[in-house]
Amino acid sequence: MSRFVRNSKFRHVFGTAAKKDLCFDGVRPSRTAHDTNLIKANSQYLGVCWEAGGGGAFAVFDQTKDVGKVSPTPPLFTGHKAAVLDLDFHPFNDYLIASASEDCTVKIWQIPEELKESQDTPLSTLAGHKRRVGAVLFHPTADNTLATVGGDLVIKLWDIEAGVAKVDIEAHHTDLINSIDFNYNGNLMVTSCRDKQLRIFDVRSGKLVQQTESHQGVKGSRCLWLGDSNKIATTGFSRASDRQMAIRDVNDLDNPIYSDNLDTSAGMLMPFYDEDCHILYLAGKGDTTIRYFEVTDEKPHIHHISNYSGSDPSRGVAFVPKRAVNVNEVEIGRAYRLTTSFIEPISFKVPRKSELFQDDLFPEATSGEAPMSCAEFFGGKSVDGPKKISLENGFVPGARKDVSFKSVLTEEVKDDTPKNEKEYREAWAKLKAEVTDLQNKLTQKDIQIRVLEQKITTLEGGN
């Protein structure tokens, strides 16, 4: 019996790890239990949440100059008072990076041209969350616009140049927010939450647009907007703790167009999407493999291509922007896989014999130029999406830009969340005393009300 083989130019994509001397050996990623990727990448650098005592820190490595054995004492960014939980590179300035921390603040840093000493003075500090900040994500089309996710169940949209929160998205999530992502033009935001709901918000107004039930497992979930389509990918767990993947169309959010139970592993699945090749990558925490699928408009919408298999379990994964891939080697994607002590570059390629530029594989990709300013975006301007650039001439690093952020005095918010059993007992005793005090006050008020009622009754009887 003949077997139908789907025709696709990405059918034979394969992943290859770099040689050991081109990896990063001896890294010390943070041991935080917070659900984060721990690693981020842009076209030139890698950022890694670092294990450091006496406060929070992260490291930045040049992707070409710093390969090999990492120094036991590398230069770090050390301005936070507690562990760094998440990082994100500025999409329009390769030398800026944002860090989120348990100390309830977000800091914006400039990466020096020669990073030889630790940095402890950020360009700006954004304070306003009342609990730890677990995620940061830059806007895809508006310059100097950053979203931050707090343990206070609030998402803030910041103008980082002015140090001002433009929008607060609050009073919607009832449990910890697991992940956020913008749509292609940045007008909408999708969120996944531990309350098992998937929500879509209007970014400018902060208003809830749509909401539906998502994965029903007790563990966390992730969400990802699939490029310029109306599709959203989610990963999570079923009630039986099976790892799941689903694809939804925003025009019918309640009914997934694709859903599948993948396996019974315990690690969170981290999704990544190549909007140019329409390839969805899934990397599981604690897994040694990265699965990748081609996404199509036709049913069943998802087609498994292959798996990359490594040796050590993953702590986190990051992909470089498409404009940074090596088109001469027909590299359609490059990931950096973080383990307990190692960062492994993985190149995903399409086998081609021709040495000419493969324009069918490399359409114009997202450039590093902002389509609009933060003020224009919040003033109502909309664009179709990010600006594009041809990859035919290969990767050209972005020029270093001078930045002059306003010095904004912000009040550091103390995180009073109990950290151990003793603090929880003290907090419980304090709350119990406050409840008792309130009950006594209510009793006194009740007595006063009864006395007044009796006086009124006496006065009415005398009349």
Automatic annotation (TrEMBL):
Pfam families: DUF1899 (PF08953), WD40 (PF00400), WD40_4 (PF16300). PANTHER family: CORONIN. Residues 421-455 form a coiled coil. WD repeats lie at residues 77-111, 126-163, 170-211. Residues 3-67 form the DUF1899 domain. Keywords: Actin-binding, Coiled coil, Repeat, WD repeat. Belongs to the WD repeat coronin family. One of its GO terms (molecular function) is actin filament binding. This is Coronin. It comes from Fonticula alba.
